[in-house]
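Appendix B. One record, verbatim.
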Amino acid sequence: MPSARARLTNAILHVTTKRRWRADTRIESVRARAARIDGRLGERSGHDPGESWVIGGVPCKWYGTAGQATHGTLLYLHGGAWCLHLPNLYRRFVTRLSALTGLRVLLPDYRLAPEHPFPAAVDDCLAVYRALVTSDACRRT
Protein backbone atom coordinates (compact mmCIF):
# COMPACT_ATOMS: atom_id res chain seq x y z
CA MET A 1 0.00 0.00 0.00
CA PRO A 2 1.43 3.42 -0.95
CA SER A 3 2.41 5.78 1.86
CA ALA A 4 0.57 9.02 2.52
CA ARG A 5 3.53 10.91 1.03
CA ALA A 6 3.39 8.79 -2.15
CA ARG A 7 -0.35 9.38 -2.49
CA LEU A 8 0.13 13.13 -1.99
CA THR A 9 2.98 13.24 -4.54
CA ASN A 10 0.85 11.36 -7.07
CA ALA A 11 -2.07 13.74 -6.49
CA ILE A 12 0.18 16.77 -7.03
CA LEU A 13 1.64 15.23 -10.20
CA HIS A 14 -1.88 14.49 -11.44
CA VAL A 15 -2.92 18.13 -11.03
CA THR A 16 0.30 19.73 -12.27
CA THR A 17 1.42 17.36 -15.01
CA LYS A 18 -0.48 14.16 -15.74
CA ARG A 19 -3.86 15.65 -16.61
CA ARG A 20 -2.19 18.05 -19.03
CA TRP A 21 -0.39 15.28 -20.88
CA ARG A 22 -2.58 14.21 -23.77
CA ALA A 23 -1.79 11.93 -26.70
CA ASP A 24 -1.28 14.97 -28.95
CA THR A 25 0.91 16.89 -26.47
CA ARG A 26 4.36 17.65 -27.84
CA ILE A 27 7.20 16.21 -25.76
CA GLU A 28 9.00 19.59 -25.85
CA SER A 29 6.15 21.26 -23.94
CA VAL A 30 6.03 18.43 -21.38
CA ARG A 31 9.79 18.67 -20.88
CA ALA A 32 9.69 22.47 -20.57
CA ARG A 33 7.01 22.27 -17.87
CA ALA A 34 8.91 19.50 -16.06
CA ALA A 35 12.14 21.55 -16.24
CA ARG A 36 10.40 24.52 -14.58
CA ILE A 37 9.15 22.30 -11.75
CA ASP A 38 12.56 20.65 -11.44
CA GLY A 39 14.25 24.07 -11.33
CA ARG A 40 12.04 25.12 -8.43
CA LEU A 41 12.95 21.93 -6.58
CA GLY A 42 16.63 22.66 -7.12
CA GLU A 43 16.31 26.12 -5.59
CA ARG A 44 14.99 24.64 -2.35
CA SER A 45 17.59 21.96 -1.80
CA GLY A 46 21.25 21.79 -0.99
CA HIS A 47 23.53 21.30 -3.94
CA ASP A 48 25.37 18.00 -4.32
CA PRO A 49 26.41 17.87 -7.97
CA GLY A 50 27.44 14.23 -7.75
CA GLU A 51 30.58 12.81 -9.29
CA SER A 52 30.35 12.49 -13.09
CA TRP A 53 31.49 9.25 -14.72
CA VAL A 54 30.89 7.40 -17.97
CA ILE A 55 30.06 3.77 -17.22
CA GLY A 56 29.26 1.30 -19.97
CA GLY A 57 29.36 4.21 -22.41
CA VAL A 58 26.57 6.03 -20.53
CA PRO A 59 27.00 9.31 -18.62
CA CYS A 60 26.29 8.72 -14.92
CA LYS A 61 26.58 10.44 -11.56
CA TRP A 62 27.67 8.91 -8.28
CA TYR A 63 26.11 10.16 -5.04
CA GLY A 64 27.49 9.41 -1.59
CA THR A 65 31.11 9.06 -0.55
CA ALA A 66 33.57 6.75 -2.25
CA GLY A 67 34.06 4.84 1.00
CA GLN A 68 30.42 3.80 0.92
CA ALA A 69 31.11 1.67 -2.17
CA THR A 70 32.75 -0.93 0.08
CA HIS A 71 29.32 -1.62 1.58
CA GLY A 72 27.58 -2.01 -1.75
CA THR A 73 26.25 -0.05 -4.68
CA LEU A 74 22.72 0.93 -5.52
CA LEU A 75 21.89 1.47 -9.20
CA TYR A 76 18.97 3.89 -9.37
CA LEU A 77 17.04 4.02 -12.64
CA HIS A 78 14.97 7.19 -12.57
CA GLY A 79 11.35 7.39 -13.62
CA GLY A 80 9.98 9.66 -16.29
CA ALA A 81 8.35 7.22 -18.71
CA TRP A 82 11.66 6.86 -20.58
CA CYS A 83 11.23 10.42 -21.93
CA LEU A 84 11.73 12.85 -19.01
CA HIS A 85 14.75 13.67 -16.87
CA LEU A 86 14.37 15.67 -13.64
CA PRO A 87 17.93 15.93 -12.28
CA ASN A 88 17.15 18.07 -9.22
CA LEU A 89 14.36 15.75 -8.09
CA TYR A 90 16.54 12.66 -8.57
CA ARG A 91 19.56 14.31 -6.93
CA ARG A 92 17.57 15.09 -3.81
CA PHE A 93 16.12 11.60 -3.67
CA VAL A 94 19.33 9.62 -4.26
CA THR A 95 21.36 11.81 -1.89
CA ARG A 96 18.84 11.01 0.84
CA LEU A 97 18.73 7.36 -0.22
CA SER A 98 22.52 7.14 0.05
CA ALA A 99 22.47 8.70 3.51
CA LEU A 100 19.73 6.36 4.75
CA THR A 101 21.15 3.14 3.31
CA GLY A 102 24.85 3.81 3.71
CA LEU A 103 25.32 2.82 0.06
CA ARG A 104 26.79 4.77 -2.81
CA VAL A 105 24.12 5.42 -5.46
CA LEU A 106 24.71 5.50 -9.21
CA LEU A 107 22.27 7.45 -11.37
CA PRO A 108 22.65 6.86 -15.13
CA ASP A 109 21.59 9.57 -17.57
CA TYR A 110 20.20 7.18 -20.17
CA ARG A 111 19.00 8.25 -23.61
CA LEU A 112 15.41 9.46 -23.76
CA ALA A 113 12.57 8.82 -26.20
CA PRO A 114 11.33 9.92 -28.67
CA GLU A 115 14.75 11.11 -29.91
CA HIS A 116 16.16 7.69 -29.04
CA PRO A 117 13.39 5.11 -29.60
CA PHE A 118 12.94 1.92 -27.62
CA PRO A 119 15.06 0.00 -26.67
CA ALA A 120 17.80 2.70 -26.44
CA ALA A 121 17.13 3.56 -22.78
CA VAL A 122 16.87 -0.09 -21.79
CA ASP A 123 20.12 -0.83 -23.62
CA ASP A 124 21.84 2.02 -21.74
CA CYS A 125 20.60 0.79 -18.37
CA LEU A 126 21.70 -2.76 -19.15
CA ALA A 127 25.15 -1.52 -20.27
CA VAL A 128 25.60 0.34 -16.97
CA TYR A 129 24.46 -2.68 -14.97
CA ARG A 130 26.81 -5.03 -16.82
CA ALA A 131 29.74 -2.63 -16.38
CA LEU A 132 29.00 -2.36 -12.66
CA VAL A 133 28.81 -6.07 -11.95
CA THR A 134 32.11 -6.69 -13.71
CA SER A 135 33.92 -3.82 -11.93
CA ASP A 136 35.27 -3.31 -8.46
CA ALA A 137 32.70 -0.54 -7.88
CA CYS A 138 30.09 -2.92 -6.49
CA ARG A 139 32.18 -5.73 -5.01
CA ARG A 140 32.27 -6.23 -1.26
CA THR A 141 35.64 -6.25 0.43
